[in-house]
Every structure is written in structure tokens, then in C-alpha cells.
């Protein structure tokens, strides 16, 4: 019961519920004001304008939010006017439907915020069919009042933003810490859970993409909010939490170990990994609790459990050495020590977040310069050439726009020919659930139908219990607020609540509520079927055919990240910023590849060509970026020796292999790389350095010098990490080259 109350509190204090309240206020206030002033006949038009322009109100840069809503207002007014003037003339109306559906849906090529503006435009097109205005004067008044409604919602959004200026960012930070906590716990399972490792790896792909999306939105919101006078104290705190969350995420990525090697080294001694696994789990749960406290404003939990778990992980290294004995225990001890170092760094970042949340003075200092911060923003271009570049059947969004346009026109003609009551509900269902990918459209169709049936069943129950108009009005208002609060979190429940809201709004107007429910269910099912069939048959966009460009970008960014890490090793002070930017770009690229793979898993089995091969490519890229991150993190957090010529040669070899994979897939000229015998020799020399240091250490132990100083430990760690990780990266890059060539022959050349 206590857990349920906590979840309810988190929901009611969330920015999602806040946006539901904004919409509720945006609709209720003008309706009430116009009612009391005696102009209630104008209220529906203002309410529609408010409703249509709410989608663009999402977290991020406040300036971009305002611009998005203003564009949305203009777009919805123009589209409504076109449809209303075209309605008496069927041929003209069909042409308007074709043109608006295609052009407006294609706006989505400009990114997520633009896709919401696009949705508002499509929604305005559909809503126009429900508006009964015939004379030019009536139409112009309707359109003008809708514009007023849109501007009114902008005012409401602005007021809410001023009343709670940090709520959206706090929610984003909370969601991010929650996802990172879950991710850390999932990665802990990979350490010993050999049986379900593949299943857990696939789950990490989903979490990685979600975390990267949150970080991108937070970067936009926090790095662009800086005024000439600087950031506010609270913005400074939020930025500190963001930076720590990014570091934790990158540290977790860098802790992607060679699990096969771990299985070999520890064999029957897996119990010594349990302390490290438990530490990750405890830190994950602590982050989840901190995520809740960003919303709840409760007392920060004691850190003793964290410190005890860290101490136990450190103690397990000594216990392992005492049990297995040196020199046989050295490799496993170094693995545990490297793992411990990463976890200790994660714990330091968790402590930093705790200090910020506890308002400890001078907890940290943000030294990111304005010109540096701009490099960490992924700016969306709004030039016309972006649209022209997507004007091809090779573009996923172009195919989606064509598919959506055909589905909308077919649905409208079906409604017109069969004289279906409220047939625009079919169109509404299509624009709400239809997505570029078949899998997501199918999933949303299922959720939409189930949600509609649940909502209809609830509405029937209420109608059987009472025919009170006041009850209907109250339920319609409350369910609408809850529906828009849940639309991003649980689409099925949101669909149920939207159905309840629509049914009771119509029930206030039309006494025959059962008829409204009946048509709502039938039209939803028809719309869902049309959407799924259209996605499957009309210019289908199977993810396996869209993967090439995503893969090419990942190969490019992984190579740039590798070379940036190489430069970092040469001069950490000079190249640290360039390394950070390359790391961010590589993480975003792998996130996009992971997202593409997830969409592939949602396609029909018959369309998942070479599934295992693609899974292998995604996993190899993921492992490679983690291995590079591991080297980079060691360089940043330890005093290192100068990079050897063997290190440089192997980096060049791995870089060339990645370039070979890119050239092979892109059908560009393939250049000659480093000779294999040279790289093999470099590998042996790097391993030889580690064995030399190990032998020297063994000799010191035999002479009674058992105490291990920090400098010697770091030299051993560095030699072991560089030798093994470069060998690992070389093997990964070669396997990736082979897999990429198989992919090119199996899929790209067969198209």
C-alpha cells in the first residue's frame, strides 16, 4: 500500500500531470468565462484551438517551445480554413486531404519537436470534419477563435513555466537517474548471469537509447537556458546533476567487460564477483531513490550502505588473491581492481549528486564555457534542403508520408461511401497510431483498441448507473487531464481515458450515449486495421533495409572516438575537450543503432532478414565503443606512461579495419592498411611489457617485498588494460569487418 501511495504521489507531482493540468486550465477557463459573459457559442472554437496546440508543449528550450507553438497555431488555422472551404466540393476536398496529409506529415523530418507540430496540423485537418461551418464569415470566425485559443494556451504554458520554472527539467533529471539506476542493475546481471546474457544485452540496447534521448533533451534545456547574466543557482544545480549522470552513464559503458574472458579467468571462483555485482545493484537502487527525491523533496537516504558495499568489493580483491595465490591470481585481481576503480568513480558521482541535492555549498563548480557547451548540443537544421534531401523513396519519412496520405484518403472515402457516422474518428485513429515503422504501428493499434474497449466498458457502466449531465461533464474533464498526463507513459491507459472523455462529451450533447460508444469502438477498429494494413502493404519500410546508413554512421563515429582516445593518450590537457565531444557523438550513434535494432525486432519475422547477423553487428559495435571508453576512462582517471609506438601502431590497425568496413559497406575505394605481421608483433610487445612488469613484481615478492605501491599498481593496470583491450579491439574490429562484409553481400547487394 505504501509503495502504491508513493507512486501516486510521484505521478501527481510529475511534469506529465502538470501538462495535463495546463490543458485542463486551458480548456476550462475560456469555456467558463465565455459562458458567464453570454458568448458560450464561441467557446468550442477557442477550446479546439487550445487543444490542437498543446502537443508542442514539451520539455526543452523554452524559446524553441514558444516557436513550436506559434508555428503550430499558424499551421492549424490555415489547415482548418482550407478543409472548411473545401468541404462542399468533394474533388477539391480529396485534393486538399492529399496535399495536407503529405506535406504536413513530411515536416517530421525536422525532428521530434517538428513531428509534434506536424501532429497538430494533421489533428486540425481531422477536427475540421467535425466542425459545421458553411459561410465564409462563420469559417473565418471559427479560424480566428481557434487562433485565440492557441495563443491562450501559450499564455497558460508561459504562466505555468514561470510558476514552476524547474519542474520539467527536474522531471527529466528524475527520469534519467531512474533509467541509469535500472541500467546499472542490468549491467550487474551481465557479470555472473551467463545463461541470460544475450537477453540482458538486448534489454541494455533499449535503456541506452532512452538514456541518450533524455540526455539530449536535458542538454538542450540546460545548455541553451544560459542568460547573459549567467545561470541561476537552481539551473547550476540541475546542470551539475546532468553532468554527473552523463559521467555515470559513460562509466557504466566503459565497464563493458570481456565477459568470455571473465568466465575463463574466474571459472569456479565466481563468488568473488558477487561483491562487485551487489555494489552495482545497491548503487542502482540508490540512483532510483534519488530520482524519486527530485520529485518528492524528501530526506536523502543514508550513504552507509553504499560505503559498506564498496568496502566489501575492495575486500573481495584481497580475498581472491589470498585464495588463488599469486602469480595465478594476478590477472583476476587486476580485473577486479579495474572493476572496483570504475565503481568507485561511479560512487563519487553519486556522492556529487547527493551533495547537490542536499544543497551543500560549493559542492562543485561548472566550468563549461559557452563556446564549449555548444559542441555538446545536437542542433536541428530547419533549412529547406533537409526537406528536399528526404524527397525520395529511399527516405523513411517520405515513404511514411505517402503511406499515411493514402491511408487517410482511403479511410475518408470509406466513411463517405458507406455514410459512417462520425467517420472522422477513423481518420483520427490513423493519424494517432500510424508510425513510420510497422512494429510500432501494430503495437499502438493493439493498445488503442484495448484502451478503447476498456474506456467504452467503463463508460457503459457509468451510463447504466446514471444519466446525470453534471457527472458526465466532470468525468469528461478529469479523464481528459489524466489522458494527456499518461500519453507518454502508458498509451493503452491514455487511449482508455480519451475514449471516456470523448464519450461523455458527446453524451452531454447527444442523450443516446450507447450509440456514441458503439460508433467510437467500431471506428477505432476500422482505423487501426487500415493503419496496420497500410504499413504492411503500401511502400513498406522494413528496418532491415534502413539499417545501412545508421551502421555507416556508427562505424564513422566509433573510428573518430578511437582516434580521439589515441590523441588523448598523447596529451590529455590539450585533447580532453575533443575527446569528450567524440565520445558524445559515438554514444549517440550507437544509441541510434540500438534503436534501429529494436525496431527490427518489432517487424514481422518474415521481414527480419539475417537477424542473427545484424544482432552480431550491433553487439560488436556496442562492445567496441565500451572497450574504447574503458581505455579513455583509464587515461582520464590515472597518471599514465607515454604512449608506445606499439600502441600507436595497433590504434592505426584498428582504425584502418573500421575504415575498411565503412568503405566496403559504402562501396568506396578501399585503402591499404597496416601489415598484419606488424600488428601481431606490436601485440606481442605490449603483452611482453605486462609480463615483464609481472615478473618483476613476482621477483619482489620472492625477496619479501610484498607491499604494492600505487605507482607499480597503476603501471601493472595500465600495461594489462592497454595490452588486453587493444588485443580485444583488434579482434572486435576484424570480426566486425567480416560481419559487415557478410551483411553487404546478404542484404545490401541483394536489394
From TrEMBL:
It holds the Pfam family FUSC-like. One of its GO terms (cellular component) is plasma membrane. It comes from Algoriphagus aquimarinus. It is a multi-pass membrane protein. GO terms for molecular function: transmembrane transporter activity. This is Uncharacterized membrane protein YccC. Keywords: Cell membrane, Membrane, Transmembrane, Transmembrane helix. The chain crosses the membrane at residues 21-40, 66-85, 92-110, 116-132, 139-160, 401-418, 453-485, 491-509, 521-539. The lineage of its organism: Bacteria, Pseudomonadati, Bacteroidota, Cytophagia, Cytophagales. It is found in: Cell membrane. Residues 73-331 form the Integral membrane protein YccS N-terminal domain. InterPro entries: PHBA_efflux_AaeB/fusaric-R, YccS_N.
Amino acid at each position: 500500500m505504501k509503495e502504491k501511495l508513493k507512486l501516486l504521489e510521484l505521478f501527481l507531482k510529475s511534469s506529465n500531470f502538470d501538462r495535463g493540468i495546463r490543458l485542463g486550465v486551458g480548456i476550462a477557463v475560456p469555456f467558463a468565462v465565455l459562458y458567464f459573459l453570454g458568448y458560450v457559442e464561441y467557446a468550442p472554437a477557442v477550446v479546439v484551438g487550445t487543444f490542437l496546440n498543446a502537443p508542442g508543449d514539451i520539455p526543452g528550450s523554452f524559446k524553441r517551445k514558444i516557436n513550436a507553438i506559434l508555428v503550430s497555431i499558424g499551421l492549424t488555422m490555415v489547415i482548418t480554413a482550407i478543409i472548411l472551404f473545401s468541404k462542399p466540393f468533394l474533388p477539391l476536398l480529396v485534393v486538399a486531404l492529399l496535399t495536407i496529409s503529405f506535406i504536413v506529415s513530411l515536416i517530421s523530418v525536422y525532428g521530434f519537436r517538428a513531428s509534434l507540430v506536424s501532429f497538430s496540423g494533421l489533428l486540425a485537418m481531422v477536427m475540421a470534419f467535425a466542425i459545421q461551418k458553411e459561410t465564409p464569415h462563420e469559417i473565418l470566425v471559427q479560424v480566428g477563435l481557434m487562433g485565440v485559443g492557441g495563443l491562450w494556451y501559450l499564455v497558460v504554458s508561459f504562466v505555468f513555466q514561470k510558476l514552476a520554472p524547474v519542474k520539467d527539467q527536474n522531471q527529466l533529471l528524475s527520469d534519467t537517474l531512474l533509467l541509469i539506476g535500472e541500467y546499472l542493475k542490468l549491467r550487474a546481471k551481465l557479470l555472473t548471469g551467463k545463461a541470460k546474457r544475450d537477453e540482458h544485452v538486448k534489454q541494455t540496447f533499449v535503456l541506452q537509447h532512452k538514456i541518450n534521448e533524455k540526455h539530449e533533451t536535458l542538454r538542450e534545456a540546460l545548455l541553451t537556458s544560459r542568460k547573459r547574466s549567467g545561470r541561476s543557482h537552481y539551473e547550476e544545480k540541475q546542470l551539475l546533476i546532468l553532468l554527473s549522470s552523463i559521467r555515470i552513464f559513460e562509466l557504466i559503458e566503459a565497464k563493458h567487460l570481456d565477459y568470455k574472458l571473465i568466465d575463463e579467468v574466474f571459472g569456479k571462483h565466481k563468488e568473488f564477483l558477487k561483491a562487485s555485482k551487489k555494489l552495482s545493484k545497491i548503487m542502482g537502487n540508490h540512483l532510483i531513490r534519488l530520482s524519486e527525491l527530485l520529485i518528492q523533496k524528501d530526506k536523502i537516504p543514508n550513504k552507509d550502505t553504499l560505503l559498506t558495499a564498496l568496502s566489501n568489493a575492495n575486500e573481495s580483491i584481497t580475498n581472491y588473491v589470498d585464495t588463488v595465490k599469486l602469480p595465478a591470481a594476478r590477472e583476476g585481481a587486476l580485473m577486479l581492481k579495474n572493476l572496483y576503480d570504475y565503481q568507485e568513480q561511479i560512487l563519487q558521482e553519486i556522492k556529487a549528486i547527493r551533495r547537490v541535492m542536499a544543497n551543500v555549498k560549493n559542492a562543485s563548480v561548472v566550468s563549461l564555457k559557452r563556446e564549449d557547451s555548444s559542441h555538446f548540443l545536437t542542433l536541428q537544421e530547419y533549412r529547406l534542403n533537409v526537406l528536399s534531401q528526404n524527397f525520395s523513396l529511399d527516405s523513411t519519412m517520405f515513404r511514411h508520408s505517402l503511406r499515411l496520405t493514402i491511408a487517410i484518403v482511403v479511410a475518408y472515402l470509406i466513411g463517405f461511401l458507406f455514410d459512417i457516422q462520425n467517420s472522422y474518428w477513423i481518420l483520427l485513429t490513423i493519424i494517432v497510431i500510424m508510425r513510420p515503422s510497422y512494429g510500432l504501428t501494430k503495437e499502438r493499434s493493439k493498445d488503442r483498441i484495448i484502451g478503447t474497449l476498456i474506456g467504452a466498458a467503463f463508460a457503459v457502466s457509468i451510463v447504466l448507473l446514471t444519466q446525470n449531465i453534471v457527472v458526465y461533464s466532470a468525468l469528461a474533464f478529469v479523464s481528459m487531464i489524466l489522458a494527456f498526463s499518461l500519453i507518454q507513459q502508458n498509451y493503452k491507459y491514455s487511449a482508455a481515458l480519451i475514449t471516456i472523455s470523448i464519450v461523455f462529451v458527446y453524451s452531454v450533447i447527444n442523450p443516446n450515449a450507447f450509440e456514441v460508444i458503439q460508433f467510437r469502438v467500431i471506428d477505432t477498429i476500422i482505423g487501426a486495421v487500415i493503419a496496420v494494413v497500410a504499413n504492411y502493404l503500401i511502400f513498406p519500410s522494413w528496418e532491415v533495409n534502413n539499417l545501412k546508413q545508421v551502421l555507416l554512421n556508427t562505424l564513422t563515429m566509433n573510428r573518430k572516438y578511437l582516434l580521439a582516445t589515441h590523441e588523448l593518450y598523447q596529451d590529455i590537457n590539450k585533447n580532453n575537450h575533443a575527446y569528450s565531444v567524440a565520445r558524445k557523438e559515438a554514444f549517440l550513434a550507437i544509441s541510434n543503432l540500438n534503436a534501429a535494432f529494436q525496431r527490427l525486432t518489432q517487424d514481422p519475422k518474415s521481414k527480419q532478414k539475417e537477424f542473427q547477423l545484424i544482432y552480431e553487428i550491433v553487439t560488436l559495435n556496442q562492445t567496441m565503443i565500451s572497450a574504447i571508453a574503458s581505455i579513455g576512462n583509464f587515461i582520464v582517471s590515472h597518471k599514465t606512461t607515454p604512449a608506445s609506438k606499439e600502441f600507436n601502431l595497433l590504434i592505426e590497425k584498428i582504425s584502418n579495419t573500421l575504415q575498411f568496413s565503412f568503405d566496403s559497406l559504402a562501396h568506396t575505394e578501399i585503402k591499404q592498411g597496416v601489415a598484419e605481421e606488424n600488428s601481431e608483433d606490436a601485440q606481442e610487445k605490449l603483452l611482453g611489457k605486462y609480463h615483464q612488469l609481472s615478473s618483476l613484481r613476482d621477483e619482489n615478492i620472492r625477496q619479501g617485498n610484498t607491499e604494492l605501491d600505487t605507482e607499480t599498481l597503476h603501471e601493472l593496470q595500465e600495461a594489462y588494460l592497454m595490452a588486453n583491450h587493444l588485443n580485444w579491439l583488434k579482434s572486435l574490429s576484424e570480426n566486425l569487418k567480416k560481419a559487415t562484409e557478410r551483411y553487404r553481400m546478404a542484404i545490401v547487394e541483394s536489394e
